[in-house]
């Protein structure tokens, strides 16, 4: 794995990279406990999106001496991941400014403010989707972040906190902030992911964007699974600039790879197991790197990824059960080695 470091020395004057992306560009969604530097490398091999996002980082953690080392680990980025956007969250405008100022030197292409996470702990702290209920504070956080950096600033949010009818006023307010991009997860916080994404609202959201901030790139998120679906959605809604895949990557880690004849790409058992093997290699490299820094990279969370690779083939359930009982990457390799063709 390419060593992750502060790559400040190679950072040129930032430009708004959003303007250089192709039509119907693709984005890997920021997912807590998922889209760290290791998993981003895995997706890069399987079929990379046009834009990467990091996990979200708490601006108050970065602003404090006690939490800064952990925040910086979450913000590790490799040179060949660009364009990559750092997602940040919190409720303290001054901390947004302090974190935003640092991100440019850490090698990021842009920064995104999380105003849509439904996690109860994040919301209790006043961040994520809770910012929908404090619009004045949300605007101040955006202004402070923009004032402290030359990076393009974007926001990821939901239709509303409780009701769908909140979206016209809420999205209007955000669009008035002259954002580089706005990602809309087509559900409310209350809906979580329990209902289908509200694709029927896309035309109205496009109209709202065109009326208020036509320069802002509009990205849609929610129930998007692969390039074939993105192609269909874009044909139906050409005003959408980009499409973000989140949970779809768990169904198919090759979701950003083109299939044949416009169809979805279907990975073989061998491709999936090879990708798992690569994930194990990158995981071990990252763990060694963090240990050299005096930090840790726990094995247990790696188990959450096994269902991505060991699924939808004969014997997958039994194999997955064996892997979940493992206590190290070495044990996993021993089990899958006979199944991988050289």
Structural account:
- This protein has 14 helices and 8 strands.
- Helices cover 39% and strands 13% of the residues.
- It has 2 domains: 17-251, TIM Barrel; 269-339, no CATH class.
- An 8-stranded parallel β-barrel has the order 1-2-3-4-5-6-7-8, surrounded by 4 helices.
- The model is unreliable at 5-10 (pLDDT under 50).
- By secondary structure, it is α/β, with parallel strands linked by helices.
- It has helices at 37-47, 59-63, 65-74, 93-103, 120-124, 135-147, 167-175, 202-212, 227-236, 248-251, 269-292, 306-309, 316-324, 329-336; strands at 25-28, 51-58, 84-89, 110-115, 153-158, 181-185, 217-221, 242-245.
- Strand 6, helix 8 (202-212) and strand 7 (217-221) form a beta-alpha-beta unit.
- Helix 7 (167-175) runs parallel beside helix 8.
CATH class of the largest domain: Alpha Beta
CATH homolog superfamily of the largest domain:
Aldolase class I
Give the total of beta strands: 8
Mean pLDDT figure: 93
What proportion strand? 5-15%
The biggest sheet, with number of strands, parallel, antiparallel or mixed sense and barrel status, is: 8 strands, parallel, barrel
Count up the helices: 14
Radius of gyration: 20 Å
| Succession of helices and strands | EHEHHEHEHHEHEHEHEHHHHH
What is the number of domains?
2
Q: Please tell me the CATH architecture of the largest domain by its name.
A: Alpha-Beta Barrel
Structural class: alpha/beta
Q: What helical percentage do the residues reach?
A: 25-40%
The backbone outline, from C-alpha atoms, is: globular
């Amino acid at each position: 794995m390419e060593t992750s470091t502060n790559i400040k020395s190679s950072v040129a004057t930032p430009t708004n990279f959003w303007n250089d992306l192709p039509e119907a560009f693709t984005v890997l969604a920021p997912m807590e406990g998922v889209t760290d530097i290791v998993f981003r490398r895995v997706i890069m091999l399987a079929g990379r999106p046009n834009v990467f996002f990091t996990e979200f980082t708490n601006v108050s953690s970065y602003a404090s001496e006690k939490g800064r080392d952990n925040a910086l680990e979450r913000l590790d980025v490799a040179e060949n991941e660009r364009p990559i956007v750092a997602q940040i969250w919190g409720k303290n405008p001054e901390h947004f400014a302090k974190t935003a100022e640092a991100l440019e030197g850490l090698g990021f292409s842009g920064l995104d403010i999380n105003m849509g996470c439904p996690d109860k702990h994040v919301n209790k702290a006043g961040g994520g989707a809770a910012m929908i209920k404090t619009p004045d504070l949300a605007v101040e956080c955006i202004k402070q972040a923009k004032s402290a950096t030359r990076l393009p600033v974007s926001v990821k949010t939901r239709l509303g906190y409780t009701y769908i009818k909140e979206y016209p006023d809420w999205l209007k307010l955000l669009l008035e902030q002259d954002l580089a991009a706005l990602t809309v997860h087509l559900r409310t916080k209350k809906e979580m992911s329990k209902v289908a994404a509200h694709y029927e609202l896309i035309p109205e959201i496009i109209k709202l964007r065109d009326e208020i901030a036509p320069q802002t790139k509009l990205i849609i998120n929610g129930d998007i699974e692969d390039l074939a679906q993105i192609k269909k959605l874009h044909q139906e809604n050409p005003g959408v600039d980009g499409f973000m895949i989140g949970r779809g990557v768990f169904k198919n880690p090759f979701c950003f790879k083109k299939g044949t004849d416009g169809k979805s790409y279907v990975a073989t058992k061998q491709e999936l197991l090879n990708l798992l093997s690569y994930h194990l290699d990158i995981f071990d490299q990252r763990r060694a790197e963090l240990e050299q820094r005096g930090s840790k990279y726990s094995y247990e969370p790696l188990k959450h990824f096994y269902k991505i690779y060991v699924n939808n083939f004969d014997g997958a359930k039994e194999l997955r059960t064996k892997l979940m009982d493992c206590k190290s990457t070495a044990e996993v390799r021993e089990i899958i080695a006979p199944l991988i063709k050289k």
